[in-house]
Design brief:
The protein has helices at residues 3-22, 26-41, 51-70, 72-86, 91-106, 112-126, 131-143, 152-163, 170-192, 203-208, 212-219, 232-253, 283-288, 306-324, 329-334, 336-361, 363-376, 381-392, 395-408, 413-418, 433-441, 459-480, and strands at residues 260-266, 272-275, 279-282, 297-303. By secondary structure, the chain is mainly alpha-helical.
Length: 481
C-alpha cells in the first residue's frame, strides 16, 4: 500500500467518522465531501452510485410507510404486545422475537420505537430488569434486516452475487439467514436472562425509587397500544402488504413465472475484440453497450430482474393501500418509517459511492494485499464486513460497498452468504438511533451507555448474536452448497 493510498483511505475513514458523529442525513452528505476530495483533489475516477439498491429502498419504504399511515403498523404492534403480555416471565426471549419479525416484515428496524416502551413496561411490572429484554430486543430489531425479503442488504446481496456468477435467490438467502439469526438471538437472550441484579436486589435502583417523584415516574402510567381501535382498513393494508411479500418470494423462487426479454451475453470463450486501430473492447463491454457481434455476443431470453420485480410489487401495493385502505400519503411522509427509510437512502448513496470510488481505483493493489489472506482464510472477510459496519451504520451500505470487492478477491459466493450476518456491527459504538432510544425508554436506568462508551448494554448481546449467527450461517451455507 503506497503512501498516497493510505492518505486517501484516511480521507474515506475520516468522512465516515465525522458523518457518524452528526448522524442521520449527515452520514451520506459528509461522505460526499470525502468523494469530492478523492475526485477533485486526488483525481480518482468516480465509482458508481448504487442506484438499484436505492430504488428498492424507496419502493419498500414507501409501501411500509403507507401501511403505517393506514394504521396497519398499529395492528402489528398490538399483536406483538398481546404475545408479550401473555408471557411476561419470558419477555427476555419473546421481546427480541417480536422486534426481529417486525423488522423482517417491514424491512426496517425502526419499528422498534413503538414496541420498546411496551417491553419496558411489562418488564417493570413483572420486576424483571429491563436491560435484559431491551438490550437483546434492540439488537434483534437490526439483525432482522438480513432476514427481510425487501431489505436493501438482502436484495443487494442477491443482485451483486448474481452479477458476479453466484446464482442465488432471495428465498435461498433467507433459508440461511433466518435460522442462523434466530439461533444467534436465542443464545444472546439466554446470556441475558440473568444479566445484572434483579430490580428488588439492585441497590442503585432501590435508592432511586425512594424518591416519590421517581417512583411515580417509573411505576406510573402504563405504555400500551391495546386501547387503540384498529379500523378494518388498517387490517386490510396489512393483508395487502403481506400479499406483496409473498408475491416477491414466489417470483424469486420460481423465476420461470416472470416475463422474459431478449438481451445480450458474451459468447463463452470470447475475450477481446479490436475495433479500428485505437479502440479495444472486451466482450463484456460490448454487452453493456448492447452491440451484437457474431462470435462475440449472442442474444438470449432473460427473465425480469428481481430488483425491478420488488419495485413494481411494492409500489403497486402502496397504491392499493391508498385506494382501498384510506391511507393518506401526507401522513406516510410524516411517519417515522418513511423518514428513516429516506435517511437510509441518502446514507447508502453517499457511503457506497465513496467506498466504490476508492476501491475501484485500487482494486489491483487490494487484490495483491489481500488475496493470500482470503485464499487461506476466506471467512476472514467477515471481520472486514463487521469493522466497516461499525463505521457506516448501514448493513445495506456495507453489502453494496464491500461485496463487489469480496467477489473480485476471489471469495466464493457460498462463503459470503455464510458470513452475511457479520454486516451488522454498528451496535459496537452505541450511537445508532434504536440503541439511544432504547436507553431513553428504560425508565429504570438499567439500560445504559457506560462511562467508557464501549461498556454499554448492547455490547454483550450484540457480540454473542453476531458471532453465533455468523458461525451457524457459515455451516448452513456450506451444507446447502
Amino acid at each position: 500500500m503506497t503512501f498516497l493510498m493510505i492518505i486517501q483511505l484516511l480521507v474515506v475513514l475520516l468522512a465516515l467518522y465525522v458523518g457518524s458523529r452528526y448522524g442521520s442525513l449527515a452520514l451520506g452528505a459528509i461522505s460526499g465531501i470525502g468523494l469530492a476530495i478523492l475526485v477533485f483533489g486526488f483525481g480518482l475516477k468516480p465509482g458508481s452510485p448504487p442506484t438499484d439498491v436505492i430504488y428498492i429502498i424507496i419502493a419498500a419504504v414507501t409501501c411500509a410507510g403507507i401501511m403505517q399511515a393506514s394504521g396497519g403498523m398499529d395492528w402489528l404492534i398490538q399483536i406483538a404486545e398481546k404475545l408479550l403480555r401473555k408471557h411476561p416471565d419470558h419477555i427476555t426471549f419473546f421481546a427480541p422475537l417480536c422486534t426481529f419479525f417486525l423488522t423482517v416484515l417491514v424491512g426496517t428496524g425502526h419499528v422498534v420505537y413503538t414496541l420498546m416502551p411496551i417491553i419496558v413496561d411489562i418488564a417493570i411490572k413483572k420486576g424483571i430488569r429491563p436491560e435484559r429484554p431491551c438490550g437483546v430486543a434492540s439488537i434483534a430489531s437490526q439483525v432482522g434486516i438480513t432476514c427481510s425479503p425487501i431489505a436493501a442488504a438482502v436484495v443487494a446481496f442477491v443482485s451483486i452475487s448474481n452479477a458476479n456468477g453466484f446464482d442465488v435467490t432471495i428465498p435461498q438467502v433467507l433459508m440461511v439467514s433466518i435460522p442462523a439469526c434466530l439461533c444467534g438471538l436465542m443464545v444472546a437472550a439466554a446470556c441475558s436472562y440473568h444479566r445484572g441484579l434483579d430490580l428488588d436486589k439492585d441497590p442503585g435502583f432501590q435508592a432511586r425509587i425512594k424518591d416519590p417523584e421517581q417512583y411515580k415516574f417509573i411505576y406510573g402510567d402504563s405504555a400500551t397500544t391495546l386501547d387503540k381501535k384498529i379500523a378494518p382498513e388498517a387490517k386490510r393494508a396489512v393483508y395487502i402488504f403481506l400479499t406483496a411479500l409473498i408475491v416477491i418470494v414466489i417470483f424469486a423462487a420460481f423465476q420461470n413465472l416472470l416475463p422474459t426479454y431478449p438481451t445480450l451475453r458474451a459468447v463463452k470463450g470470447a475475450t477481446d475484440l479490436n475495433i479500428g486501430q485505437d479502440l479495444t473492447l472486451t466482450a463484456d463491454q460490448l454487452v453493456k453497450a448492447k452491440v451484437t457481434v457474431a462470435g462475440i455476443t449472442e442474444s438470449f431470453q432473460k427473465p425480469l430482474a428481481m430488483n425491478l420485480v420488488i419495485q413494481i410489487v411494492m409500489i403497486s401495493a402502496a397504491a392499493l393501500m391508498i385506494i382501498f385502505c384510506k391511507a393518506a400519503p401526507k401522513k406516510a411522509v410524516a411517519g417515522p418509517v418513511w423518514q428513516s427509510g429516506m435517511v437510509a437512502v441518502v446514507a447508502i448513496y453517499g457511503i457506497a459511492w465513496l467506498a466504490d470510488t476508492y476501491f475501484s481505483n485500487y482494486l489491483g493493489e487490494m487484490q495483491t494485499m489481500l488475496v493470500d489472506i482470503v485464499a487461506k482464510y476466506p471467512w476472514s472477510i467477515a471481520l472486514v464486513f463487521f469493522l466497516v459496519s461499525v463505521l457506516i451504520n448501514s448493513q445495506g451500505a456495507v453489502v453494496v460497498a464491500m461485496l463487489p470487492l469480496a467477489y473480485k478477491l476471489g471469495i466464493e459466493g457460498w462463503v459470503l452468504l455464510g458470513v452475511l450476518p457479520s454486516v451488522y456491527g454498528y451496535f459496537f459504538i452505541p450511537n445508532y438511533p434504536s440503541d439511544i432510544a432504547t436507553v431513553n425508554f428504560d425508565r429504570t436506568g438499567t439500560t445504559i451507555i457506560g462511562k467508557y462508551l464501549l461498556n454499554h448494554s448492547f455490547m454483550m448481546p450484540g457480540l454473542v448474536c453476531v458471532i453465533t449467527s455468523t458461525l451457524v450461517a457459515y455451516v448452513l451455507s456450506l451444507l446447502l452448497h
